[in-house]
Amino acid sequence: MEIPYSELSGDALRAIIEEFVSREGTEYGAVEISLDTKVEQVRRQLEKGEVGIDFDPDSQTCHLFDKKV
Questions:
Q1: Separation of alpha carbons 68 and 46, rounded Å
Q2: What 3-state DSSP class applies to 43?
Q3: Domain ranges of the chain
Q4: Which of 67, 63, 43 minimizes the C-alpha distance to 54?
Q5: Are the C-beta atoms of 1 and 57 separated by less than 8 Å?
Q6: How confident is the model at residue 31, as a pLDDT?
Q7: How many CB atoms lie within 10 A of CB 36?
Q8: What CATH class does 2-66 carry?
Q9: Is 61 helix (H, G, I), strand (E, B) or coil?
């Protein structure tokens, strides 16, 4: 089920985004980008409606997904 990012507390939203951007395999560039910068980039994508947050009640986990697909 999709969860509107605006309904999450700031701390919960940051934790979800941090978990996503710190996953193994999410670093593709030659230049290292700080965690804060990555979090802000994802936050902007959420605000623009490019990315959504999905909650799976069975596994009790959240996932970010590309809304453009």
A1: 12
A2: helix
A3: 2-66
A4: 63
A5: yes
A6: 78
A7: 10
A8: mainly alpha
A9: strand
Dmax (CA) for the chain in angstroms is 37
44: which 2 tokens? 């902007």
Give the three-class secondary structure for 20: helix
Walk across the sheet containing 51-56 and list its strands: 2-3, 51-56, 61-66
For residue 16, what are its two tokens?
């979800």
Amino acid, single-letter form, for residue 37? T
Element (H, E) at 2: strand 2-3
pLDDT at 66 over 70: yes
Task: Write the pLDDT tens digit of every residue in 11-62.
Answer: 999 999 999 988 866 566 677 888 899 999 999 999 999 999 999 999 999 9
Is pTM, for the whole model, over 0.90? no
